[in-house]
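Colleagues,

For the teaching module next term, I've prepared a clean inverse folding example: a structure given as tokens, and then the sequence designed for it. I'd like students to try predicting residues themselves before seeing the answer, so please don't circulate the second half yet.
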């Protein structure tokens, strides 16, 4: 009704806007000639539209076929070249901020939170968060929450499914676990979604909807979504409703936390409390952005990664047996036959760490990371980047480049991450930028590994897993994260207890 009225009352305005949109699209999708290189592959707008439905796989194929592993799209340079990645993320870091074009897309949801900020505002948040993530208190707090979530909710749910010969979508259950855990870590509120509690359902649905709408903005000209937002139409109107729900929830949590005594805040381990303890002059709005940012960062990333790992291991009995043998050996060494796994025990599981890394290589949750060039630049492979152009690295493609991983790049091979003694051997983060690299390296990297290893070990040592349609290759589904299309439907069976 609102759009119909606009068309009837303002035909001149509509004609003007359409003309303006046509002009904008021509400029928006014209690749600057200076971005081209004799070695990089240049892609036309028509090719981009034709392959938009499989953007991640398509661009990966083009990157692998390019002599420099770099391609030039209508609005950005996309690369899988480690030297280019190091240049953008470290050597010339200050020339490649997120940029207003990217931060404006997520501003309604994240405001100026750490994952949507540049410059001094980012450095302040980074410094505070870095101090907290490196404390033993927060690590113990995170691992304790994971153990409770697994022992009290995930294992009983899977045990019921096994007893009733019932199939479950493991990806969905892991999503629920991850959301519960990140809310506990970020602001010490337990949504209990894995337990079936719907008390925080409105916040969850609003966050899920707002994220999807914000991400959809990346796939359309800025003028379109900004016009819809100005006119309060369609998805932009829904986004305002979602953000209102998120704001109400987050502000309520922030104000409740600020109302506690200084001693209570100091004794709390969640990130919100740690930020307040660091500086009680932080505004409510600033703290709200912190809450939203960490929920977004941890909401589905680890769950997506674990779903891919469970699928990969389920089709490789030798890998499964080696993981189980390592878990048993570590337990025996520490005299911990049935208790929860400690931080030290999980750190000793090198083969499991390698299996997680190998899964992340092939199916990284965060596939695309764009940065905007502030000034004209030339990448190490010779590709020119004009000011205002974005440079994006594609982690999905990088996990498939023979020059990085060898001829057997297509094999799921945890051993490639181990030295001759079986100890985990990390590679350069510029070859494996799944957790980003340089000054913006993910602060939660080590804890993400710890969480995933704790969940995977706890589930694998208790259950055998049969994946439905085991012979079918899993398709990727990409919005903001690389997900498994259709979920991971499995049948669980209890393992025989070892004496």
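(Answer key — instructors only)
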């Amino acid at each position: 009704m609102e759009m119909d009225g606009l068309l009837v009352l303002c035909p001149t305005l509509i004609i003007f806007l359409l003309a303006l949109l046509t002009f904008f699209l021509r400029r928006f999708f014209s690749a600057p000639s200076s971005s081209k290189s004799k070695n990089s592959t240049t892609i036309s707008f028509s090719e981009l539209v034709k392959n938009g439905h499989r953007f991640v796989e398509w661009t990966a194929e083009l990157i692998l076929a390019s002599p420099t592993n770099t391609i030039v799209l209508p609005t950005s340079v996309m690369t899988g070249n480690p030297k280019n990645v190091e240049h953008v993320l470290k050597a010339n870091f200050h020339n490649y901020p997120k940029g207003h074009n990217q931060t404006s897309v997520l501003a309604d949801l994240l405001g100026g939170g750490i994952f949507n900020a540049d410059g001094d505002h980012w450095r302040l948040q980074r410094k505070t968060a870095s101090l907290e993530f490196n404390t033993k208190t927060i690590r113990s707090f995170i691992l304790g929450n994971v153990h409770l979530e697994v022992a009290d909710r995930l294992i009983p749910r899977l045990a019921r499914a096994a007893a009733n010969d019932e199939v479950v979508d493991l990806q969905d259950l892991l999503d629920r676990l991850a959301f519960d855990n990140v809310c506990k870590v970020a602001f010490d509120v337990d949504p209990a979604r894995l337990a079936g509690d719907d008390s925080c359902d409105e916040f969850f649905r609003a966050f899920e909807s707002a994220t999807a709408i914000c991400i959809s903005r990346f796939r359309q000209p800025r003028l379109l979504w900004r016009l819809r937002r100005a006119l309060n139409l369609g998805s932009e109107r829904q986004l305002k409703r979602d953000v209102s729900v998120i704001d109400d929830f987050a502000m309520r949590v922030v104000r409740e936390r600020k109302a506690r005594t200084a001693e209570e805040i100091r004794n709390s381990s969640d990130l919100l409390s740690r930020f307040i303890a660091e500086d009680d002059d932080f505004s409510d709005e600033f703290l709200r952005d912190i809450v939203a940012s960490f929920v977004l960062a941890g909401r589905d990333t680890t769950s997506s990664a674990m779903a891919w790992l469970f699928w990969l291991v389920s089709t490789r009995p030798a890998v499964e047996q080696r993981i189980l043998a390592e878990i048993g050996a570590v337990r025996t060494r520490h005299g911990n036959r049935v208790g929860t796994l400690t931080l030290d025990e999980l750190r000793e599981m090198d083969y499991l760490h390698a299996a997680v890394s190998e899964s992340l290589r092939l199916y990284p949750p965060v596939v695309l990371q764009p940065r905007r060039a502030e000034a004209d630049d030339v990448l190490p492979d010779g590709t020119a980047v004009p000011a205002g152009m974005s440079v994006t690295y594609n982690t999905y493609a990088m996990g498939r480049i023979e020059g990085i991983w060898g001829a057997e790049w297509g094999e799921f091979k945890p051993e490639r991450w181990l030295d001759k003694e079986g100890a985990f051997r990390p590679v350069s983060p510029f070859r494996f930028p799944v957790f980003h690299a340089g000054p913006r390296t993910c602060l939660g990297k080590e804890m993400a590994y710890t969480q995933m290893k704790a969940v995977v070990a706890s589930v694998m040592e208790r259950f055998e897993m049969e994946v439905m349609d085991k012979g079918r290759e899993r398709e990727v589904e990409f919005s903001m994260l690389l997900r498994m299309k259709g979920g991971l439907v499995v049948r669980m069976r209890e393992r025989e207890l070892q004496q």
